[in-house]
Every structure is written in C-alpha cells, then in structure tokens.
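For practice. Supply one:
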Amino acid sequence: MVNKTQPGRLILASKSPRRKYLLSQAGLKFEVISSRFDESRVVFSEPEAYVCTLSQAKARQVAVAHPDSWVIGADTIVFMDDRVLGKPAQRSAARRMLQRLSGQTHQVFTGYTLHCEALDQIITAAVCTDVTFKMLSDDEIEWYIRTDEPFDKAGAYAIQGLGTFLVKRINGSYTNVVGLPVCEVIEQLIRVGVLRIGDRGVSET
C-alpha cells in the first residue's frame, strides 16, 4: 500500500493494461488519463534518449492539464541489431520478428517520467533489460502467431502472457520488459516524497 505525502493525485498517462496492472499489483492507487501525444513527431536517435523523450512528452501533456497531480509517463521499445522492432500489424511481420529474435539476445528499453507541473519537478530515466529467446521452431512460431498475442505487442511477444515460453532468460528488470520498471518508479516516488514507507510497509493514507 502507498502513503501519499504530496498534494494531488497520482496519474498514469498510459492506456496500457500492462502498466495499469503492474502499478495496481504494487499497491498504488492512481487514475488513468491516457496521453494522446503523437509519437511520430519524435525522430529516433538512440534508444535511451528516444524512450526518455517520448515518456517526457506523454507525461507533460497530461501534467499540464492536471498541474497538481504527479503524472507517470512511459514508453517501451524492443531493440536489436540497431533496429527498433515495433508492433506487427500482419502475420508476415510477426513471423519475421520472431524469426529474427529466435536464439538471440535483444534489449528492452523503457523510459519513464514523473512530472508535477505545480512543483516544477520532472524526473526522467531509462531502464534496459537483456532478453534472450530460445531457438524457435517454425511450428512454435506459427502456433504463437495463431494465438494473436503477437499483435499490438512491441517485438511481437508478451513475456507476461503465452510468450513466456519464448524467453530462455533475462538479465535485468522483468517488469521493465512487461512495460514499466516498477522498482525504479516506486524508488523515485519515495525519493521525491510522493510516497513514504509506513509502519506496515509502503502504505497509502
């Protein structure tokens, strides 16, 4: 549970059900107000800078409209061989991505931003996790594609879903791969005084 010490509410500026689930599992109480920032406006440079820039833009758009709240913005990409693997729209694209990831190690980058407009505070950081896939057979790839899980997922897989069988090992934050590095986000919220550790752990008043 979470003790809130700063004025205003906590807002997640994302419609991602995975980020909502992660924060709820951590005991945080928050509102979801999705950012409508146009990601195509940001030109890719390098992974950390890119996800940080996007998370800042998403958080700021919501924070300006809700200045007394603390807003959490985030953006996650799958990166391999100097390429961003986005969300496949077609089976052929999902197949190519999974074939590319098979037996290889790739990186998942998430940028997160905590923004309170009234306090003029913006905290941004990026977290990287190495993810190694098992060698996938053609049958395994085709079966997974038929589940429809790869669609609307960066890199064409969901580690928290059926795609867990694809992953041989990870090095780093698991929740980062799901979509939000919860440990780091909560540490920052505690550090700036938004949350505090109470007698019963991290609890909310």
User: Anything to note?
Assistant: The helical segments are 17-25, 47-65, 91-101, 138-146, 174-178, 182-191. The CA atoms of residues 166 and 172 lie 17 Å apart. Confidence is low (pLDDT under 50) at residues 1-7.
